[in-house]
Amino acid sequence: MNQKPQSNICVIGSIHADLSLRVSHLSAPGETVSGTDFQLSPGGKGANQAAAAAKLGGTVCLLGRIGSDSFGESVFSRLQSAGINCSGLERDGDLPTGIAMIQVDAAGQNAICVAPGANAAVTTDYLHRVKRLIDDASIVLLQLEIPMETTLWAAEYCAGQGKLVILDPAPALPLSDELLGHVGIVTPNDTELSRLTGIPLTDDAARLAACKALLTLGVKTVINTAGEKGVYVYSGDELAHYPAYDVAAVDTTAAGDSFNGALAYAFSVGLPFSQAVEFANLAAALSTTGYGAQAAMPTAQQTAAASCLPKKNL
Questions:
Q1: Most exposed of 80, 162, 182, 192 (fewest Cβ within 10 Å)?
Q2: Which residue range forms the structural domain that includes residue 230?
Q3: Which of 18, 92, 168, 257 is catalytic?
């Protein structure tokens, strides 16, 4: 797949210890549900996207903070074992490692609650301390699970250095024109796209209007990840559609993270834009066929073997 010298990827974002449980159905308020297959694994959007790119063969540096606790040590060890450069991670002596508690039902849908912990201390001062690692990258992945002012500084600095800035606007929060003006590619899912623009995605015309609204705020390209509907791309011309792959999904946790990590990897090895989107579309679909976040993310070999999978006809 390599078509040019591989570019470095820097992921700046959240790191969690994921506590996952399979359940027959997602619990309602006041309801206790019995679960099976408990897993403790690395998570957080930053760590997940770094793992997705690294499992595909990317050269990846992850920047963030963990606690000086057993969860932090476990997460650090597993991320390092996945081939991620963790030399810039810092341990916080006061705040615990971030935690995500995840339920996954029989249909593969999930419910997640998060305690940010040390992710709240990913400050601009911290990024200045590890700036050498940012400078080494050509592609930078950002999300919204660390302080907004840190994300803004990173986007502005990286765009000013000529790096490709990819923003996953999750969880959906109000975004300033200043931030969006530094973003090359934004990758909202349907919920995030609607919340960011205030436009309900009732049909393709509404989807196009929402994408146009983001471009007027300064974003260069919108890649809308729409689950079973596939992926929509808008850069100012027509709304391009990439249908979803037809797979038997069992757990959708971190499918969006898999998409973003795979997209960054595809760009890092020089794939043309449309091929990069298609590659990420396939990687995200494959990630839903296994349980867990990072554990289910595909390798380059698995993605290549699945390239002939049929598309959904919705």
A1: 162
A2: 8-16+44-94+119-305
A3: 257
